[in-house]
Each structure stands twice: as structure tokens, then as C-alpha cells.
């Protein structure tokens, strides 16, 4: 599906998902290690609660411990890993409380970014790209190829709007939130693989953006973010008996999905 879409216009901030498979040209060893480890955490290769050491990661990526140590320091600041005294590191859990906060923050930031972008006017090439992305059928998160493409399209759609806001700091934070949200969405998809976004949701955002309707764009993005917020928390609650519980990746088979 992605092969039918043109190269990504706009920037400079793009979610980590869109960088998968691209060259890391110009990155130093620390930046390469950070990008690689962060990707493993986001795509659940390193699932919540998993433990590892600097040595194990250095061996995996065939690099020295120093860039791995520096990358892990950045990931600690990001809140994605926690250092264990004399025992390495553990990937931070996904909790209902933190997910609730993350989704609420995304609603505030992305809806305001959409209003700014609409008011300012979006470059024609970016607007064309948004129109194409808005037609990709939506799914909650990755599973088969079409579901994975839906997530990529939705992430790119939101990031391009943030970049078009004209506020680089806002765009940077929106993309950071989207990276954290991807991990949550992938967890939710494992619990409820049948979940999908309502048809036409991205198109309802695209239209006011094209019309330079700031209020309409803000409302459309807010409605989408709040819908995702409700759906994700509802799905994750299936796997947590209390709001602060560590959500475990379910075993194969959909025993966690009520009939």
C-alpha cells in the first residue's frame, strides 16, 4: 500500500515508525544505539518489564558499551527504561494511569497543532499528501500488513499536521508523544486485534485543514484523539485489574478478548 504513495514531504520531525528501514546516515554511535533500542521498546521486541544489560545490548549491536550507556541515559530521561541497582535495566511498564495522561496530552497538543496549521495554511505538497493518507483504511495498530500500513499512515498524517503548525517545539513534542503512543497502540492491538478506526475519520480532519478552518480542524482532531483515548483505555483495562497495574503482553490466542 505504501508503494503507491509519494515520498514524505514536510518535516523535520517524523515518528520513529516512519524511520524504520531508512539509512541512519550522519548519526553517531550513540544516536544509532538510541534509535535502535528505542525501536525495540516501541515495537515490543523489548516488551514492558523485560530486563537487559548494557553488555547484552552492546553484544547484540556489535558496538562498545559507551554509546549504549549514553543511549540508555537518554531512554531513562524519556521514561522508557529504568535502571536497576547493579542489575541492568528494565523496560518501563504500560499502565492505565500513564496511558490516560499520555492520550490526554496528545489531545491538547495535536488539536492545537491542527488549528495552527489550518490558520497558517498548509503547503500544497503536504496538503496533497494528507489527502492521500486520509484515504488509507484505519486500524488500531499493527497486525497484518494492512493494519501496519494504517498505523504508519495515521502517524504520518498527525506528524505532518504538527510540522505544518509553524511551531517547531510543538511539532517535536507531538512526535515524541506519538512514539510513546505507538507502543501503547501495539499493546492494545495484541489484546484486541479486531479494533479499527471509524471510516472517514482522517478525511473529517483533512477537509477543514484544506478549507483553512482552524476551529473545524481543532474539533475534528480533538474528536479523533478523544475517541482513541476511550478505545485504548477500554481495551487495556481488559488486562489490568487496577489502574496502575503493569500490563503484560497476552499469550498467543485471544483468551483475553471476551466473546
Structural notes for this entry:
This protein is mainly alpha-helical. It has 2 domains: 16-91, Winged helix-like DNA-binding domain superfamily/Winged helix DNA-binding domain (Arc Repressor Mutant, subunit A, Orthogonal Bundle); 96-238, GntR ligand-binding domain-like (Four Helix Bundle (Hemerythrin (Met), subunit A)), CATH 1.20.120. The protein contains 9 helices and 3 strands; from the N terminus they run αβααββαααααα. Helix 6 (145-163) packs antiparallel against helix 7 and helix 8 packs antiparallel against helix 9 (214-237).
Structure keywords:
single chain, 259 residues, mainly alpha, Arc Repressor Mutant, subunit A, Four Helix Bundle (Hemerythrin (Met), subunit A), 3-stranded antiparallel beta sheet, 57% helix, disordered N terminus
